Amino acid sequence: MAFPRKEHPVSDFIAARKIGEKISFTRNDVFVIGTIHKILENSVIVEISEEDADLIGAASTLTVVAHKNYTIE
Asked: Fewest beta carbons within 10 Å, which of 1, 4, 5, 37?
């Protein structure tokens, strides 16, 4: 038996996000600027440079950032 997914109101901040938008965040004491690749309910997938990926220890140039942990550039 499957339960239907509950619809949650989307905040104005999240609703205003667009793919390709530049954001910044800090991870492992490194300031990173990236581009939104995909918008999810609680986070965004961000494309960052290879250099930044190495500095923060990410496995690839795509990383997940919670909506509460980034700012718009």
From this structure: 1
Tokens of 48: 């960052």
Tokens 């918008």 found at: 39
Task: Residue 23: count other Cβ atoms within 10 Å of its Cβ.
Answer: 20
DSSP, residue by residue, the chain: --PPPPP-PPPHHHHT--TT-EEEEEETTEEEEEEEEEE-SSEEEEE--HHHHHHHT-SSSEEEEEGGG-EE-
pLDDT, tens digit, 9 for 90 and up, residues 42-66: 999 999 999 999 999 999 999 999 9
Residue with tokens 């997938």: 45
Query: What percentage of the chain has pLDDT greater than the value 90?
Result: 78
The structure tokens listed for 70 are 């980034």
